[in-house]
Amino acid sequence: MTSINAVQRLAGQAASSNGGQPTRTRFWIVAMLFLVTSINYGDRATLSIAGPSMAHDMELGSVGMGYVFSAFSWAYVLGQIPGGWLLDRFGSRRVYFWSIFTWSGFTLLQGFIGNVGDLSTAIVMLFLLRFMVGLAEAPSFPGNSRIVTAWFPAQERGTAASIFNSAQYFATVIFSPVMAWLVHAMGWQHVFFFMGGVGLIVSFVWLKVIHSPADHPRINAAELRYIEAGGGLVHLDQGAARSASQRINFDHVRQLLRSRMMVGIYLAQYCINALSYFFITWFPVYLVKQRGMSIMEAGFLASIPAICGFAGGVLGGMISDALLRRSGSLTFARKMPIIGGMLLSMVMVLCNYTDSQILVVTFMALAFFGKGVGALGWAVMADVAPREISGLSGGLFNMFGNLSGIVTPIVIGYIVAGSGSFNGALIYVVVHAFIAAAAYLLMVGKIERIQLASGLKG
């Protein structure tokens, strides 16, 4: 690995030889990733906000809504490997543009469901549109990781990845109140019109802002050399263009699955996402059913962990990059925030031993803050993914992580139904946090970029 001092020397040499300091175009790139990822999560949340009014108008029961909710996760998981392969074949800029444009179009179309006269047809169409949103969004996070890999040196990669990953919390805080107002003032259809329309506009902004480092009109040679000296794969999309004839090579997938480091990373991401899906799906219900809060109280208080998660997410990346600059050890710099964050998130189990609503919210906020600090999986992927298949590798990683979105809500539902309490559910989530920390501590080993075996490069 290139040492941090060597990178700094090379950056200084680049600035001197080019008559100025490196530009900071890469910061505009990560700002664009943050904006697009916020819209991504806003579109995911449309149904949860519009759902109650929509269900009433369409006479859709809880079972039917459950199936509609599940459509996104099934498609999102199924689309990960094909989505990652498309990124490697055609490049991040082009594939991601069509991803944003397509998922936004399908989001907007959901606003017309109320005009379908036959209820059964409307439900089927809603399910299919949600399925297509999930499928179209599949390349998004592998694309984020791929772009960060190309645009950022190792000593800035943790912060960059944590910024786009923290957009999931930011979206909850920003878009949920707007969508709730639209439902109240104008009707549930306008939630889909608004979010879909915003996404369509932003997809064209994407084409203006995003280019590969080697092709960007606003980058200077000093910044390009600085990124490359720090391990940024500045020619990544040029490699994608040269390999445009490749098919999905499942030997590549098998090689990743034979790596103990990668298996540990996949296991940890599955467990980390169990915490995310608990907060997304069951946390407000927990506050109402077990803690006796009103819907209004639960809606307000549920935003507090989201804000703490956002703060923890950005801080985790900054801590990781600071550790890398000081120690020069990528393994130490990535593992410490993940392990520490997961251990902190285990404080949520203390909610089982108090009746104080203030303490419950405090413990949950600390837990989500810890989860944010430890959510460095995408930074790790940017560090370890083979350069030939960075998109496919990210897709496989995201597939394993989001299997938790299918399993966790269902298992918690059974636990609560069987016991009549959320105590077992909190233990279930805490065990996952412990396993995530143990996976990085005991399984992952040294964090380094995987080199494909010479016979497997396609």
Automatic annotation (TrEMBL):
User: What is the species of this protein?
Assistant: Amphibiibacter pelophylacis
Q: What is this protein called?
A: MFS transporter
